[in-house]
Amino acid sequence: MNDLIAKLRAALGAANVLTEGDLTAYEQDWRKRTRGKALAVLRPGNTGEVAAAVKLCAEAGTPIVPQGGNTGLVVGGVPDESGREVVLSLTRMNRVRAVDGGNLTMTVEAGCVLQNLQQAAEDAGYLFPLSLAAEGSCTIGGNLGTNAGGTQVLRYGNTRELCLGLEVVTAQGEVWNGLTGLRKDNTGYDLRDLFIGSEGTLGIITAATMKLYPLPVASLTAWAAVPSMEAAVTLLGLAHKHLGAGLTGFEVMGQFALSLVDRHMPQLRVPLYQDTPYCVLLENSDQESEPHARAAFERLLEAALEDGCATDAVVAENIAQARGLWHIRESIPLAQAQEGLNIKHDISVPVSRIPAFCAETDALLASSIPGVRLVNFGHLGDGNLHYNVQAPVGGDPQAFLRELEERVNVLVYDQVKKFDGSISAEHGVGALKVDKLPDYKSPVALSLMKSLKKALDPQNILNPGRVVSV
Predict the structure, then answer these.
(1) Alpha carbons 208 and 168: distance in angstroms, whole number
(2) What domains appear along the chain, each with residue ranges and CATH number?
(3) Could you tell me the CA-to-CA distances from 317 to 285, 291, 310, 468 in Å, in that order?
(4) Which residue numbers delimit the FAD-binding PCMH-type domain (predicted)?
């Protein structure tokens, strides 16, 4: 291994091959549930250096764990405890290579922080709509590797739908330059979509060409109290009817989830939640004018109040108020973490079946674990819930996690399967859920996935043990 380290230092520079000192930022997952041990942390500065590093690791049979901002939630971007795996961090590759306004595209390197990409697009007069809570530290390479979702999937789709082309280093250290800005290209298999969502198990994404959109003329945010999950789904239908393509966000938040924000972050002043089981956050982006957007919002809310699917509502009067409302929504995971250890679920269920799923699964958990607390929130507009489970008041969170996590997961995942859903909507599979896939994924699909993995990575050196076991 000393020979490999020496070769890597010659290829990347000694300062970019880390083997000593505090490597916690690279070896520990974001939730601090897992800490691995890296043989080395590699920090290439360009695609050529990534390719050189992969070739050297392939020759030595050394596994590689690609890593972006290390904000993942499924233990997919940190090394295991063997001390054999190298972490390949893309964070030095953070340039915006080009903005093509005529083609409405932006080509960026994989280590570009999402918030910086958003700002670069805005500075050029465009919108890059991918938005999620970790946008200040997650990278576009990680977003692509997990096919991240976020708050605007309803209008713009997941990261996959926002990508037109990729640059990828294969398991053999070859570079595929697929950075096309084409929206139509039927010259064979869609390699781009193969690598997106593969969590670095098939190739290492080093750059991408992403779609841009015109900046909206006006963007308004509303917060509504709703009497049930059924009412929230009804409100979603009304929002589609009244706002059409202008509906860019539709988030649902349970009362207990919002109470955690109120308890741990009282300065955020959570509205309307005390007397209603759920609140909904809506965003309307308009290409005409702010009066046009506000009139459409007012018609929607009037119809919702008349129907009874909303019992009260407020519309943000300015950008600061709108950001404040979104900040409340984005603070739920942090507030839950401050409350104590919890069991997280990132699930999707057909929107029309979400009320029945919640009612039935809530009841099963309540009867199985007296006093259990449910932190239910997420992207109702696209059927994605973060259906999280908190220990009872006064209980030992460590013991709760240790003794009940498997039981809770099986109960929730069985319910997801019953309601024709997915056990991973936007966070990925990583190492956390890889053993669950055989119970909840088609055997034919798993067989095809394994065949792809063996074909593209025959040595099994790219993020082994994540997504699929071979």
Answers:
(1) 9
(2) 2-89 (3.30.43.10), 96-214 (3.30.465.10), 218-333 (3.30.70.2190)
(3) 14, 12, 19, 48
(4) 34-215
pTM to 2 decimal places: 0.94
Q: What is the pLDDT of residue 398?
A: 87
Who's near 8: CB < 8 A, 6+ residues apart?
17, 40, 42, 53, 56, 86
Which residues pair with residue 224 across a beta bridge?
280, 313
| Helix, strand or coil, per DSSP, at residue 183 | coil
pLDDT value at residue 33: 82
The burial of 157, by beta-carbon neighbours within 10 Å (0-12 exposed, 13-18 middle, 19 or more buried), is given as middle
Give CA–CA dist 439/462, Å, rounded.
24
Q: Measured in whole angstroms, how far is the alpha carbon of residue 424 from the centre of its chain?
A: 10
Q: What single DSSP character describes residue 28?
A: B
Q: Identify any residues that bridge with 384 across adjacent strands, giving them in sequence order.
A: 348, 379
Dihedral sign computed on CA atoms, order 318, 159, 461, 453: positive
Please determine, for residue 1, whether its predicted confidence score (pLDDT) is greater than 70. no
Query: How many whole angstroms separate alpha carbon 99 and alpha carbon 107?
Result: 6
- What does the pLDDT look like over 171-229, one tens digit per residue? 999 999 999 999 999 999 999 999 999 999 999 999 999 999 999 999 999 999 999 99
For 78, 115, 202, the CA distances from 143, given in Å and listed in that order, are 16, 12, 15
Tokens of 21: 């000192």
Question: Which one, of 71, 85, 87, 76, lies nearest residue 26 by Cα?
Answer: 87
d(CA 433, CA 75): 9
